[in-house]
């Protein structure tokens, strides 16, 4: 797990990507839901996509609880964020189709989830407490949905990686065995040629140039 403090703070971004990101199974972009996707965020994933074929990317629109104070526009804002996120994944990066991308975008409040789980550890009800904004339960369930799909993505990636490693090992074994097999078949072929009769003895109806006889 590599946690970047920010994608616009490293002067050697390309080197950082090559060092830490080429073996990554999943990327999670934690965006601020109070603003749109930043150019630096987009540029980072464009660079990643240049090095990896269709990386698995999740987008978390964090601090979504801040929108709870404006219920009259919350759905409109959510739709705008969703459309921009989908356009980024589908049209710009081309890492997923629209249906796949819709399962990669979430609206959450990480602080709310953390506080709820701390309360659970203390034996307190996690879905109630001081300071919970309207719609907390829905945001909490959406975070759980993200966790499930994140785990599924990691599992599928692990299976693909395992199959890929198996295929590479099979190819390596095949390549190492092929010269020995070729030599073996060549010896067998030469042995058969030496032991094969070239003609028949001069019996009645037999030809020394033919292996067929008539009696």
TrEMBL record:
Residues 1-147 form the Dynamin-type G domain. Residues 181-215 are annotated as: Disordered. Keywords: Coiled coil, GTP-binding, Hydrolase, Membrane, Nucleotide-binding. Gene3D superfamilies: P-loop containing nucleotide triphosphate hydrolases. The keyword Transcription regulation does not apply. GO terms for biological process: mitochondrial fusion; mitochondrion localization. InterPro entries: Dynamin_N (IPR045063), G_DYNAMIN_dom (IPR030381), Mitofusin_fam (IPR027094), P-loop_NTPase (IPR027417). GO terms for cellular component: mitochondrial outer membrane. It is found in: Membrane. It holds the Pfam family Dynamin_N. Its main location: membrane. Residues 186-206 have a biased composition (Basic residues). GO terms for molecular function: GTP binding; GTPase activity. PANTHER family: TRANSMEMBRANE GTPASE FZO1, TRANSMEMBRANE GTPASE MARF-RELATED. This is Dynamin-type G domain-containing protein. It comes from Rhipicephalus microplus.
């Amino acid at each position: 797990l590599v946690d970047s403090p920010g994608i616009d703070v490293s002067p050697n971004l390309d080197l950082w990507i090559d060092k830490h990101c080429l073996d990554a199974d999943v990327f999670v972009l934690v965006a601020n839901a109070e603003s749109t996707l930043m150019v630096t965020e987009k540029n980072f994933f464009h660079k990643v996509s240049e090095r990896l074929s269709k990386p698995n990317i999740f987008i978390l629109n964090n601090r979504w609880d801040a929108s709870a104070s404006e219920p009259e526009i919350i759905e409109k804002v959510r739709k705008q964020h969703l459309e921009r996120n989908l356009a980024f994944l589908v049209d710009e990066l081309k890492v997923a189709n629209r249906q796949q991308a819709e399962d990669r975008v979430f609206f959450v409040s990480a602080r709310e989830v953390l506080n709820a789980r701390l309360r659970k550890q203390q034996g307190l009800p996690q879905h109630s407490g001081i300071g919970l904004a309207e719609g907390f339960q829905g945001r909490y369930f959406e975070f759980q949905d993200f966790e499930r799909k994140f785990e599924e993505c990691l599992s599928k990636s692990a299976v693909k990686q395992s199959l890929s490693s198996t295929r590479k090992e099979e190819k390596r074994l095949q390549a190492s065995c092929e010269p020995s097999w070729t030599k073996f078949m060549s010896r067998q072929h030469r042995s058969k040629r030496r032991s094969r009769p070239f003609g028949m003895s001069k019996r009645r109806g037999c030809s020394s140039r033919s292996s067929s006889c008539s009696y």
